[in-house]
Write a structure and sequence with these properties.
Layout (H helix, E strand, L loop, with lengths): L1 H14 L3 H13 L6 H14 L2 H11 L14 H22 L4 H11 L6 H12 L6 H8 L10 E3 L5 E4 H15 L3 H12 L7 H14 L3 H14 L3 H13 L3 H14 L8 H14 L2 H17 L6 H5 L10 H20 L4 E9 L4 E6 L4 E5 L15 E11 L4 E11 L1
Antiparallel strand pairs: 1-2, 3-4, 3-6, 4-5, 6-7
Helix pairs in contact: 1-2, 2-3, 3-4, 3-5, 4-5, 5-6, 5-7, 6-8, 7-9, 9-10, 9-11, 10-11, 11-12, 12-13, 13-14, 14-15, 14-18, 15-16, 16-18
């Protein structure tokens, strides 16, 4: 029988590692009336995976979505037999398809859900969740059904960086992704419950991200007080210019433009990245400065934005194209950017620090990253070098500074104590 010859040829090629050729023989076998048993179907699915050819993966997928007596031996086996015996290999084939063809992800995910109960492979569920979290084409309802069948507490394996340091655990990574999803679809109680579990870990590597997510959840619910509180806690856990920008956005949503501008400026001054990464922040600063009547800052900012967008071949809006600008070149870019940052400091000090205090730097220890300043009246205050809005090399003893007090957690003393939120030379 011809179909038997194709089967034997396919098996021989499979053993030789010629998977694409083997799969072609199996196809011919099916075309000539050969039937699949559960055991042989596993070989077919494995061969499709090993061929790494999208056409073979798709052909195997089409077969599995229509288990009928046309290609499957249903006289000796039931559909349930095929599902139970082929689930593991088929699920990994679906994983390959989702990675290779993310446009049809929902079609494949529907099949995953149909087979998931036949295979209790926790590693599979974890790895699939990782790639699904990154897919923009996901149907939220289907993804929710998948996540509801996961328990992030089942995972504990540490994830390490290339240098061997522990960066997180599967538990945290999966839990954070699930909490983020539930927050996005409005299931806030589920999201908060997961966040609480993650923050209870003894060494929570995702702590700043989880606290920031709690801030976003509060913001979704228009609880501005809690959103600000959590955003500041996230900053305590890991100082990041992006969090200062987000804090400014909360104040802007509340209508507090001065505080919004204060944190937008902090974000700019604490950033050490390429200007191209700051596009959204710079647009927000431009809107603020235009409202404050700071024409010089707006003109210089437009010029820097225009140069950066042209240099990187990014699109330029008609408004920016027609805006008044000065010429920025590769030679003068750094100088003009420093000028802009100094102008931002000037606006910050003159218009955006309503609660500022004045003091004198009494000591500074760059190696231990802290110092003390003295307020008018003689009261002494601690500050971290992270709070400096100027380069530490530009700060000297007896310099007059503006500062503002805040309360932060000191992990060494395990208490909350007063320190300076920022320090900037007058």
């Amino acid at each position: 029988m011809m179909e038997l010859n194709h089967r034997e040829n396919g098996d021989k090629l499979y053993q030789e590692g010629k998977f694409q050729e083997a799969y072609e023989e199996y196809r011919k076998m099916l075309q000539e009336g050969g039937k699949l048993t559960p055991h042989f179907n596993n070989r077919l699915l494995a061969c499709a995976r090993k061929s790494k050819k999208l056409d073979d993966l798709s052909h195997a997928f089409d077969l599995m979505t229509n288990i009928s007596d046309e290609h499957f031996d249903l006289e000796s086996n039931s559909v349930a037999d095929f599902k139970a015996n082929n689930a593991s290999t088929y699920l990994w084939l679906l994983y390959d398809l989702i990675k290779a063809d993310d446009f049809n992800v929902n079609l494949y995910l529907h099949e995953v859900l149909d087979y998931l109960d036949y295979c209790d492979d926790k590693n599979y569920r974890y790895l699939l969740a990782k790639i699904l979290f990154k897919n923009p084409n996901l149907n939220k309802k289907l993804f929710g059904e998948f996540l509801d069948r996961l328990d992030f507490k089942d995972y504990s394996k540490e994830l390490k960086s290339q240098d061997g340091n522990t960066i997180a655990s599967e538990y945290e990574q999966l839990g954070y992704g699930m909490a983020k999803y539930y927050a996005e679809v409005g299931e806030y109680s589920k999201a908060e419950e997961i966040c609480a579990d993650l923050l209870a870990l003894k060494e929570a590597k995702y702590k700043p991200f989880v606290i920031n997510l709690q801030s976003e959840i509060a913001l979704f619910q228009k609880d501005y007080t809690r959103a600000i509180e959590k955003k500041k806690q996230a900053l305590e856990a890991k100082e990041d210019w992006f969090l200062y920008h987000q804090l400014g956005l909360i104040y802007r949503e509340m209508g507090e433009e001065a505080k919004a501008g204060k944190y937008f400026t902090f974000a700019l001054l604490k950033n050490r990245q390429n200007l191209g990464y700051l596009n959204k922040l710079l647009v927000d600063l431009r809107t603020l400065y235009a409202g404050l009547g700071e024409g010089e800052a707006v003109k210089l900012l437009d010029s820097l934005l225009y140069y950066e967008r042209k240099k990187n071949n990014w699109s330029v809006s008609e408004e920016l194209e027609n805006a008044e600008k000065i010429e920025i070149t590769e030679e003068n870019f750094r100088k003009q950017y420093r000028t802009f940052r100094n102008l931002c400091k000037k606006i910050l000090k003159e218009k955006l620090l309503a609660e500022r205090k004045e003091g004198i730097v009494k000591s500074i220890n760059p190696e231990r990253r802290f110092g003390f300043l003295e307020e008018r009246g003689g009261k002494s205050h601690h500050f971290s070098t992270n709070s400096l809005l100027d380069d530490i090399r530009d700060i000297a003893l007896n310099d007059r500074v503006y500062f503002e007090l805040t309360e932060r957690f000191n992990p060494k003393k395990n208490i909350r104590e007063q320190t300076c939120e920022y320090v900037i030379k007058i």
